[in-house]
Amino acid sequence: MSDLNDIVEALVGRASGGEAIEAYAARGTDTEIRIYNGEIETLGTATSAGIGIRVLLESTEGSRVGFAWTGSLDDAAIDRALDDARENATFASPDPAVVFASPDGVSPASVTLADPAFGTMSIDDKVSLVTELEAMTRAADSRLRQVDAADYGDGIVEVALASTTGISAEMSRTSAYVSVAAIAGDASETQTGSGFSVGRGPSSLDIADASRQAVERSVRMLGAVKAPSARTTVVFDARVASTVLGVLGGALSGEAVAKGRSFFEGRQGEPVAVSGVTLIDDPTDARAYGAAAVDGEGLACRRNVLIDDGVLAGFVYDATSAKRAGTVSTGSAVRGGYAGTPSAGCRALVLSPGDLDLDGVLAAVGNGVYVQSITGVHSGVSPVSGDFSVGAEGLMIRDGALAEPFREVTVASTLQRMLLAIIEIGADLTWLPGSAAGQTLAIGDFQLSGS
Amino acid sequence: MAPDVIERVLSGAVERGGDMAEIFVEDQASRTAVRDDGRIESLSSGARRGAGIRVVVGETTGFAHTADLSEHGLLEAARAAAAVARQGGGGTRPAALEDLRSHQSMVSRFPEDVATAEKLDLLAQADDAARSQGGSISQVQASYAEGRRRILVASTEGTFASDDQVRTRFNVTCIATGDSGLQMGYESLARTEGFEMFDAVDIAGLAEVAATRAIAKLAARPAPSGQVPVVLAGGSGGVLFHEACGHGLEADHIVKDSSVYCGKLGELVASPLVTLVDDGTVGGEWGTSSIDDEGRPAQRNVLIENGVLTDFMWDWMRARKEGRPSSGNGRRETYQHLPMVRMTNTFLLAGDEDPEEIVAQTPDGVYVAKLGGGQVNTATGDFVFGTNEAYLIEGGRITEPLRDANLIGNGPEILRRIDALGNDFSMMPGTCGKDGQSVPVGCGQPTLRITGVTFGGTAA
Questions:
Q1: ipTM value of the model?
Q2: Is the Cβ pair A408, B80 closer than 8 Å?
Q3: B33 touches B120 (CB < 8 A)
């Protein structure tokens, strides 16, 4: 048993009558390296730890919950956090839905999230890796004029979680990434493109692929102009589709639905997407970036079908939102580290893949726009109303193939209409950072605003 | 923290070489309360304390942080940060620390001294006021947050300064339900002040604004698509300048040739109506502080004057490269982050036209009463910003409400298209994200008109 586990178990043991306690302790060590012009621009490495404590006071009208966190594992800091959580609980309104998760008999899937070789690569080798990434990108194409950032990062996180309701869980996770941002053009024109590679450890990073993405994405935008306004079909590249799917996941949160903050409210069992479209959240798939054995409340993560052959099949729940909705947790509690409280969310969304690769999707679409990057997702996409309007750049699709580049336009629709206008889902499934897989995605009936 | 301990830690940081070492100590406490779905749903408290240490060798920065503020813990972090100084060398002789420049908070009511019941009462007031706006208001979430951040910065260049920063925030988000579906309205108040912030504000009024914003959009028609003239209400759209040019004027982008404003100093980059200022000293604003996170006093910096680019924003690292002083724009989210060039309060100075006249003299277009967030690509200058409340302008009059959409433009082009500036002015708070770090900023502008912006709605 780790020291983190000792700390959370000891806290749970301090619960008095009529009180439930849940403690979540985490410790992480991160390394970050940025290279510029062949030299180290920044190099940082540090360990930090902390604990989040929830206290629940039971009463006949329902329970009241309070929370406190501290960025330290010192006894005095923990004592103070426990006092604060207890005091905070006394001010909350009693709510029959407020509960901690209780063991539900589902066994956690066996997913390995820690690279056993993590920690064996020296700092010097990590510096060499990202220095090589920067150098190969600078040398890749004469039309590139700058590489303004080449980064390496890795981290190891350990978590222990326990509660008076019988939850006891430990997890550890390692991760590593490289990323590079390139600028193409001359004094009269600028285009940008980025590339990255992620893995459970540095040995699984592919710097050649990260470099290729940055070069291809920036150089192919040279000569881009504003495209004319049109009603058009949009093909999102895998990276963009992952972002869009992630936002859609927000509308599938059982908490948002129960509180009337999702356009999916009241639609369960109804067709919401083109038939044939199936959307699953499956954190038990070890390949997924967001894979996890247990959720943020210590229950086993599981495969949840959200849209089944076009029909809205269900939502993701944590313990409280499930109680509110009169159902059971789907093992979908997510939390942003020790300083956050759990809430219902998706970790590993994936659409049932189709049969076509990118070229096949483009051929099937014929004419439209291929979007390689979007901006303004947080200001222009609402999981409440479904309104969707984002800045976009990419390449025109003409006669089934990629053609000239465009920039500075928006594409707009609604999430509701987009699901009903899906034309093709690519077979090219890749797992990207975030809560959703990347797959080429063709959707009709967008309004493009441009010149 | 005792000056002699700090001096020993700084000496330890540069014992193997390095041009500069700095220690940044932070003690931060926060408290939030949320009323949602008609209930006080959660109260939370958080505390974080620690130090970040950086060692600069040429163009290279080594960084480490620790929550262990003992001399032993700090020396260990100092050695980790100094790992980049592996070439050895003569070592820097740290300058003696200056007398501590200590900045006391000007707050008259520290939020931690205010009874929790008083804070919860504000949430109840907001909830009641929002729901009283009509039966279509189906959900209300009100949240209160307070934070106190005490920082101390010391460096081998002699810098020794501290600040006590108190910030208070109140948000209301309403959902309205109608035949057309759900719509959301949001309004917030956030200042670098204590609980006295509420003396000057009517919380019920704030909640009513959020509620009516959601209700208005139930009847909204799809936003237009294509180029339209846009009038931005005073204070509604400061984020436009934050995105359209603010980020591009941060010296880290300039030094790396990744800003569209690179090499444009002294040139006309905007309409002659435009004078843009970044000012970290404006009393009580969300991006205000006495010192930045490198210990440099906050100051007022004129970035664009009558359309001409006059200066960029600088932190210590970028300013040193140019042999000039920092402009007080070195900021970081917490002690666990390195500082970088950031905006404080960025705003466009007022003009002399009557705001109502600006609308009256716009035959057709869009009136944006409230902008949401935005995003920019500093290298190309292309940026987007979203609307939270917008109306059509028809025949010089504000008419029908529009659904939310993003607008897209190119910074330098949009700045040249500003052809009318009102004599009104107000600021709004925001959270600015850059390289994974979030910091509080203020944005402001008078009512203004842009002759053409691409509106990203669904209407053909």
A1: 0.94
A2: no
A3: yes
